[in-house]
Specification:
The protein has 5 helices and no strands. The protein is mainly alpha-helical and 119 residues long.
């Protein structure tokens, strides 16, 4: 499965209407978009919290059970990213491709470390 296939398959779980979003003028302030953006933050936070607790409570050792819990949170982040991309009219493969191009450019210029989007 590629990212576009995932994005298409995952859309059936969207409880908001993409069509209503388009009819309303495709504004990022739309409740469907905001729900997705907040979902990204929430699910990423849950993944971080699980990792924090592994460090705090299990001396950093990741059990198979904890690994699966983290993977499930990553999957939730993936779903929200795919849906926000869809609402913005972007195929999910394009998101991955642009990211890899950006990283390769930074790598070639020895700018992987540091801060800022345009380093």
């Amino acid at each position: 499965m590629n990212f576009n296939e995932y994005q298409e398959s995952a859309r059936k779980y969207d409880t908001f209407s993409y069509e209503d979003f388009v009819k309303a003028g495709s504004k990022v302030s739309d409740v469907g978009v905001l729900e997705k953006v907040l979902g990204i933050a929430g699910e990423a936070g849950e993944a971080c919290d699980k990792i924090k607790k592994i460090i705090r409570d299990n001396d950093g050792v990741v059990t198979d059970e904890k690994r699966l819990e983290i993977i499930k949170e990553f999957g939730d982040v993936l779903w929200y990213l795919a849906m926000v991309s869809r609402y913005l009219g972007v195929e999910f493969n394009e998101v991955a491709e642009i990211n890899l191009k950006k990283l390769e450019d930074r790598f070639q210029r020895n700018q992987i470390h540091g801060a800022g989007d345009n380093r």
